[in-house]
């Protein structure tokens, strides 16, 4: 970061600045509990204290404490390294994360509590903050207590039983904030933890019964649950990254479930894709219903007002990804403009432009828009335009998504200069003048709702 005119190091994800590097003072035997506190030979650093034993559900592997449920170097036991490309989830190597965890890089993490991936992969919390319910915050909530950089339930956490740092002796559990040999309150003793086998995905129906893949523990049985949207899937911890998921917007019964593509990693995750417009060197769209689904889904009861505009290259690398929120009800004929059909070609006639997260403006010409000519071609059937902060008609669009031909007044090619079947998607990180020359982009334009 820049502080007082000098560049410096900012440590995130629960680490602390020690000299010129970031150390994990809860685990690092060279900086245990604080910078420079080195543990004696043979000792480990566990929960920020040097000792001979590991606490908090971790076990000693070499001179470090490892969570063998998640550690790909010690998966299920010390020294069991997972093959390349696989992750460690619930103590087993595999390609998918289970038990409500999310795959972030090569690790399965709980985005509800993980300081380095809070609420989503790579969202690291600033120093001094905790990750509570997927949000970086200075305080814990939901009845939990801040112990170091974690929010814990001191009623049940054997490493912080009744208060921070009160670790229960080996073989004991933490029940109602006191170390004990037995569990109560309807919980079951599994190892050194009291768990609710009705809902615990690692002990579902009994100790050690693990739910896998997209299963969840419901009433003591592992079940595959289908949610109403990508967002609900994400919020229930069932994301395994970007990809196809089954959703059922109206719940059990009624309409059957169907498959959608969900973006779970950009702009907060939980996005349901309603449009994939792939621009090739041929003519790719020759109808005027190509944006219907986005209007339908935007206004559906199972989505909110969030929108995501995304552009990817042909290798699926994200080139542009910005979100916004609509403030108005959309129809096929009125989205970002309430102007008449022959006037929706001009950004000056769009009174409801959506401001995106980088301050760009999103304009969408309606299904019935009916102009022609050069600038007029920006309003003939559905058309999507992204402008920089200050839209200026055809002079400075930044991104274009238009079928090659007019869709309403005639079926001729649009009147932009240099317009071709390869320019149905255009993009210039600055902007371009569509009556001088368009900037074609071969790749994938995507529109998402949430
Ligand atoms: Ca249904
Ligand atoms: Ca094309």
Give the helices and strands, then pairings.
Layout: E1 2-3, E2 6-7, E3 16-18, E4 21-23, E5 44-46, E6 49-51, E7 59-61, E8 64-66, E9 87-89, E10 92-94, E11 102-104, E12 107-109, E13 130-132, E14 135-137, E15 145-147, E16 150-152, E17 173-175, E18 178-180, E19 188-190, E20 193-195, E21 215-218, E22 221-224, H1 230-235, E23 243-247, E24 258-263, E25 271-279, H2 292-298, E26 306-312, E27 318-325, E28 354-355, E29 361-365, E30 383-387, E31 399-401, E32 425-427, E33 443-449
Bound molecules: calcium ion (2 copies).
One calcium ion (CA) is lined by residues 279-280, 282-284, 421-422, 424.
Task: Give a description of the structure.
With 450 residues, the protein is an all-beta fold. Among the domains are: 9-66, no CATH class; 267-450, no CATH class. Helix content is 3%, strand content 28%. It contains two helices and 33 strands. It has helices at 230-235, 292-298, and strands at residues 2-3, 6-7, 16-18, 21-23, 44-46, 49-51, 59-61, 64-66, 87-89, 92-94, 102-104, 107-109, 130-132, 135-137, 145-147, 150-152, 173-175, 178-180, 188-190, 193-195, 215-218, 221-224, 243-247, 258-263, 271-279, 306-312, 318-325, 354-355, 361-365, 383-387, 399-401, 425-427, 443-449. Strands 23-24-25-33-26-27 form a six-stranded antiparallel β-sheet. The relative contact order is 0.07. It binds calcium ion (CA) (2 copies). One calcium ion is lined by residues 248, 250-256.
